């Protein structure tokens, strides 16, 4: 089977970590209304790792990503990037959300050039890098179109170009393809795999799709029902296989079955929690 359990906090991984999550927990609200989204968790992400996070709805995945993005403070512990504690958003971390989150009044090119402009890059230079990024995601000829003139899949690609244009070291993706149909999703997954191989970025990618995780990841964590502990962690090798039909192999099916089994238990617990709430 091409996934194997791994200790993501081993001494070697701690030594080589690009991004370290240390005793990080999050509780929203206080008193009787307090909701513990994350118990203290520890996790090391290495340079160039593609970490996929799967877990039942409401288990704290977005909470974890938002803390790493610097949008929210943790309740305890810390997220550390290259030895520096994360306290706010930064251009070295690019974020892509589930829905495009594009500016409707700007063209595709202007949307992508917005970040560099906001960082003080001169207009001509910002437009040139924006155009390059649009070409990277296969939308070079759509630069002058407005978001409403693009399909959902194209808008997600613009979102990825917008994150990549700042040349971030880390990409943080919160279910970026959740709203897409299966065919578009599979094509974009191949594109993301190519971009990741070309750029060597460190990626944290949340998904509800186990196939997507197995296709893209070098590492996968399965989270428990809220509060989301790390229930299992794997090293995965399918992303090294150039065959786009790797999903049809017996090894892939076996890996999928293992993760589905873990997730099913947790989803049932999550459902019960919702019913009792
Ligand atoms: N700003 C907030 N204030 C209060 N509670 C919150 C807030 N954000 C999230 N929560 C709660 O924290 C828990 C975890 O939420 P989170 O969005 O991280 O889950 P998730 O794993 O991303 O779920 P999904 O798969 O549905 O996106 C949920 O119970 C949610 O209701
Ligand atoms: Mg979420």
Brief summary of the model shown:
It contains eight helices and eleven strands. It is of the alpha/beta class.
Explain what the structure shows.
By secondary structure, this protein is an alpha/beta fold. The chain has a single domain (3-92, 168-276), classed as 3-Layer(aba) Sandwich (Rossmann fold), CATH 3.40.50.300. 38% of the residues lie in helices and 24% in strands. It has helices spanning 11-16, 61-69, 108-118, 123-136, 152-164, 182-199, 210-216, 250-276; strands at residues 3-5, 17-28, 35-46, 50-54, 76-81, 84-85, 93-96, 170-174, 202-206, 219-223, 230-236. Strands 1-11-10-4-9-8-7 form a 7-stranded mixed β-sheet, with helices on both faces. A 4-stranded antiparallel β-sheet has the order 3-2-5-6. β10 (219-223) and β11 form a beta hairpin. The chain is globular. The termini are far apart. The mean pLDDT is 92. Bound molecules: adenosine-5'-triphosphate and magnesium ion.
């Amino acid at each position: 089977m091409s996934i194997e359990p791994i200790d993501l906090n081993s001494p070697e991984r701690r030594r080589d970590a690009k991004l370290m999550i240390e005793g990080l927990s999050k509780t929203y609200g206080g008193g009787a209304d307090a909701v513990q989204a994350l118990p203290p968790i520890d996790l090391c992400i290495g340079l160039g790792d593609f970490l996929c996070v799967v877990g039942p709805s409401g288990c704290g995945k977005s909470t974890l990503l938002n803390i790493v993005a610097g949008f929210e403070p943790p309740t305890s512990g810390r997220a550390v990037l290259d030895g520096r504690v994360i306290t706010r958003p930064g251009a070295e971390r690019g974020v892509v959300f589930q829905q495009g989150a594009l500016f409707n009044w700007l063209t595709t090119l202007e949307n992508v050039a917005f970040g560099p402009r906001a960082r003080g890059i001169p207009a001509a230079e910002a437009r040139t890098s924006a155009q390059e990024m649009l070409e990277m995601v296969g939308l070079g000829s759509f630069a002058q179109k407005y978001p409403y003139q693009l399909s959902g899949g194209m808008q997600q690609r613009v979102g990825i170009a917008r994150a990549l244009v700042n040349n971030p070291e880390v990409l943080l993706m919160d279910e970026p393809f959740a709203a897409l149909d299966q065919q578009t999703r599979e094509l974009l997954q191949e594109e993301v795999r190519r971009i990741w191989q070309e750029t060597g970025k460190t990626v944290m990618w949340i998904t509800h799709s186990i196939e997507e995780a197995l296709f893209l990841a070098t590492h996968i964590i399965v989270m428990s029902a809220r509060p989301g502990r790390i229930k299992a962690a794997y090293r995965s090798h399918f992303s090294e296989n150039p065959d786009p039909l790797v999903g049809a192999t017996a090894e892939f099916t076996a890996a999928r079955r293992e993760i589905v089994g873990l997730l099913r238990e947790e989803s049932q617990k999550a459902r019960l929690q919702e019913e009792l709430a």
